[in-house]
Amino acid sequence: MIDIGSHRVAATIALGPPGTDPFDLEVTSEAIYVINQGAGILTVIDPRSHKVVATVTVGAGPYGVAVS
User: Fold this and answer.
1) Taking residues 42-66, what's their average pLDDT?
2) Which of 6, 38, 45, 52 could covalently link to 32 via disulfide, CB atoms 3.0 to 4.6 Å apart?
3) How many degrees, rounded to 5, is the angle at CA 44 between CA 42 and CA 45?
4) pLDDT grade, residue 17 (50/70/90)?
5) How far apart are the first and last CA of the chain?
6) How far apart are CA 68 and CA 58, in angstroms?
7) Which pLDDT band, with edges at 50, 70 and 90, does 34 fall under?
8) For residue 56, how many other CB atoms are within 10 A of its CB?
9) Spatial contact of 35 and 58, defined as CB atoms under 8 Å apart
10) DSSP secondary structure letter of residue 25
């Protein structure tokens, strides 16, 4: 996570082991959704706590995420 005011790293969030391959993300006021292509999972992060709150298996080789 980057603090846009100071232009510094505010938090580092582990999404999984090497090879997880974060590929795409969608940001809302409620959550950050990260698609991990190598692991075939969607990671949901709480932007206030900087914690992973859910991991969802989505299948092999996902290429994007969209939230409505």
Assistant:
1) 92
2) 45
3) 145
4) confident
5) 22
6) 17
7) very high
8) 11
9) yes
10) E
Q: In 3D, which of 25, 29, 24 has the Cα closest to residue 46?
A: 29
Residue with tokens 């999404």: 15
Q: Which two tokens stand for residue 65?
A: 């995420």
Dist. CA 11–CA 16, nearest whole Å: 15
Summary mean pLDDT of the chain: 90
Q: How many CB atoms lie within 10 A of CB 31?
A: 17
Helix, strand, coil % (nearest 5) of the chain? 0, 40, 60
Q: Could you tell me the pTM of the whole model?
A: 0.84
State both tokens at 23. 């590929």
